[in-house]
Amino acid sequence: MSLAPFAIVAPFIGPVIDRIPGGRRITVFIVALLRCVTVVLMITRLESNSLFALAFVSLVLARTYSVSKTAIVPTLVKNDDELVSANSKLGLLSGVMGFAAAVPAGLLQLVDSRATLVMSAAMFGLAGLASLRLPRHVATTPNEAEKIEIEELRGLQVRRIAFSMMLLRGMIGFLFFHVAFWLRDERAGTAWFGLALGLSSLAIMIGNLIAPFLRRQMSERAMMLFAFLVIGLIGIYAGVVGGITAGIILISVTNGMGSIGRLAFESVVQREAPDANRARAFVRFETLNQLAWVGLGLVAVILNLPGAIGFAVVGVVCLTGSVYFFVKRSR
Fold it and tell me: Measured in Å, how far apart are the chain's first and last C-alpha atoms?
């Protein structure tokens, strides 16, 4: 279910986002409107099998919005140095709003499960109205910059940062499933896993918060190297120490560093590929990243390693990656 939306988004929605009149602004508006309609339909179909189809449509629309949001950022900043800051603010705002909405949503759930959906529909409607204030922008005409786009997306910096991001997402997927299946056999495993997910969400917000500060001190490539180095060191520590606490710390740190790596990746692609159809490019990269997340997650499920061994694997892979990226960066 987590991979399926990308199978739909990749071949169709990316090019459409970049080419329709009004570009990404109208795409964001349409997506918000369709999400509002989808939620309204869910309200009347809670007991129907069609609810699963509507949930799938909602996932596809959510991914479409994510791609549109990332693609539109370069058109809203004054210069390329503000890309990391702008992306981090969006990520931080998303996390804060998620936490803020959780309280009223939880209270409404106690009254009636449909009340939460009504709130969601209203929020999507307001988001659609807000999107109309975005500037009109169309990235390219269908064949105008395809050769330039290919050259830019195959540039050395873009390829390296894209590979780094794919490996980082793969490690996040591996650790997610490793911890989930490991805690399944531990006492109060569900509660511990819930705590791990909650702290991971908090770590992602902190990562979004500190990323602009890191960008002022170092380049995006150095930010990615920093993320791998921190995960590698904590992973080795967790592998040596073992235990639930070390595992929760590692998965939280990994997700926090993952948000820093993601912001560095998005900034490089946004800056180094200015003539590319960014929506199509980000869909392509995100599809590969999601494949890495699912693929290495499947590896964790198949191997079913003991807790400490799995932590050490994450540490060794990320430390090896940091050495590799350091050598490449030095050259």
Answer: 41
Quick count: other Cβ atoms within 10 Å of Cβ 136?
A: 11
Q: Identify the DSSP state of 137.
A: B
CB atoms within 10 A of CB 93: 12
Cα(194)–Cα(201) distance, rounded to whole angstroms?
Answer: 11
Please choose, from the candidates 66, 56, 64, the residue with its C-alpha nearest in 3D space to the C-alpha of residue 91: 66
> CB 257: neighbour CB atoms within 10 A?
27
Residue 295's identity, in one-letter code, is: G
Cα–Cα distance for residue pair 122/187, rounded to 1 Å: 41
Domains in the chain: ranges and CATH: 4-131 (no CATH), 146-330 (1.20.1250.20)
Whether 288 contacts 191, CB under 8 Å: no
Average pLDDT over every residue of 133-145: 57
d(CA 25, CA 46): 32
Per-residue pLDDT tens for 208-256? 889 888 988 988 888 999 999 999 999 999 999 988 999 999 999 999 9
189 CA to centre of own chain: 26
Q: In angstroms, rounded to a whole number, what is the distance separating the alpha carbons of residues 195 and 252?
A: 10
Q: Give the rounded percent of residues in the chain with a pLDDT score beyond 90.
A: 19
Q: Where on the phi/psi map is residue 184: left (φ > 0), alpha (ψ -120 to 50), or beta? A: alpha
Instruction: Give residue 66's identity as a one-letter amino acid code.
Output: S
Compute, in degrees rounded to 10, the torsion defined by CA atoms 279, 281, 282, 286: 140
Six token digits for residue 315: 């540490």
**How far is 273 from 159, CA to CA, in rounded Å?**
11
| Pick from 1-10, 47-56, 82-91, 226-235: least confident | 1-10
**One-letter amino acid of 73:** V
C-alpha to C-alpha distances, 252 to 164, 200, 258, 259, nearest whole angstrom: 19, 4, 10, 11
**Residue-wise over 295-326: b if at least 16 C-beta within 10 A, else e?**
ebbebbeeeebebbebbbbbbebbbebbebbe
Beta bridge partners of 137: 23
- Do 265 and 329 meet the contact criterion of CB atoms below 8 Å apart? no
